[in-house]
Amino acid sequence: MKSVSTISGTMVALLVNNLDTDQIIPKNFLKRVERSGFGPFLFHEWAYDEEGEAKPDFILNHPDYQEARVLVTGENFGSGSSREHAPWAISDWGFEAVIAPSFADIFRNNCYKNALLPIELSPDEVAALGAMATADHGTIVTIELEEQTVTTDGFVAHFAIDPFVKHCLQNGLDDIALTLAHGEEVAAFEASRPSFKPSLESAQDRK
Fold first, then answer.
1. How many other C-beta atoms lie within 10 A of the C-beta of residue 163?
2. In a designed cystine with 118, which of 75, 91, 111, 192 is the match (CB 3.0 to 4.6 A)?
């Protein structure tokens, strides 16, 4: 997993509450298990018409936002079924952070495991960022994970994050990397277990 430190770029404001994972990435695009290639299907039902043509009035299709790095959105973002494809699609489109007043818990955790930074700010702060992004498509926002700040023209907001989650993001540690970091301890534990108890080696032997 890539590490997260500073995120800087333009914002896109999609201020809709209760955007669920099926709206983020429709279920008919979930047949692949690779993490890449989902960006074109992000908000597919809103972004394309029945003939598969891009809708010019959908904000993510606007030329000014094609290099955007931060999505500013509404309350309870990422609700609905748990599908890791949702943060995959958001990241693959090019976003590195999502700012909202609140997130669905499972979606938030899936973001953390995929180096996508979900940031909770107050409704007023989110509305202010959304207004800036709408008024000036070139507004640059900078997010500093170490300082836990979001800054742009005359705007500064602080966000909370669990210290352990912050450590994992800063060091690019997903669940597998965390386990491998304790490889010696795992091996020592396995070596000390009585032979009649299940072990990693016995599991391999049964295959």
1. 7
2. 111
